[in-house]
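Running this now, will post back.
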Amino acid sequence: MSDIEIRKVTARIGARVSGVDISEPLDDGTVTALRDALNVHKALVFDDVNLDDEGQQAFARHFGDLTTAHPTVPAVEGAPNVLPVDSERGRAANNWHTDVTFVLNPPQASTLRSITIPPYGGETLIAGSAAAYRNLPEPLRQLADTLWAEHTNDYDYAVPEEEVDEEQAAQRARFTSIKYRTAHPVVRVHPLTGERGLFIGGFAQRIVGLSVSESRKVLDLLQAYVTRPENVLRHRWSPNQLVLFDNRITQHYAIDNYDGLPRRLNRVTVAGDVPVGIEGKESYSIQGDASHYTSVATYPTAA
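Update: finished.
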């Protein structure tokens, strides 16, 4: 095993990893150490990575089977598991979200690799939803424990409704070309650590059993705990970086603050399990089959 060094970036979320070359095949001990670090810190930053698309996919496969790039959005040509997160293909995702929660089993982890970075701005915010859950006052925690939310891609975080020029309308049509609706527990139990986290974000559009307006008030109240500054890592991209984050217990936000300059990250995601609430009930699909996008990962019961 390599002499891995893990240095915290903030008190509650994020660590910088050194002492391991992730462009090379990793032994089991190194993978276990990285998994353990991810469980603790939720997001890991790797500097000076010597990776291409194939290498990024090989690294991500250490954590499980890969999803394809996206249920509806095209992949990088010739690389079906790689999604280009490109400013030239639409606006920054300047809305808090967890990746692809509108399907039954969203990715367990996401990797982002810097390809083109603007000279200023373009940071990615990553928030810890376990810390948010711990921050909740007891009455709110008891309420959240009982709630389920409907997640859908019919709400397009990348193309706001008020921007309806021809190109953006085409992007929205592609994003929603297959409509998905899935009910997930608002409080999700992490399959490896047993931690509880608020599993909401931009795709969560309605609380099961509440009206749209009632749902919005409840979701906004809970979301405010996720995005408290103390719970957020603000990552400023450098060339040749890779960030790995646990998609089950974080949210993220790409800041649109770089004046439309070129910005490109490549994303590769690892297949995840079906979320489970605190009573052991699994998420359930309402609309849309995502089997072409992702397999279902399984994990041992958390200690």
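The mean pLDDT is 93. More later if anyone needs it.
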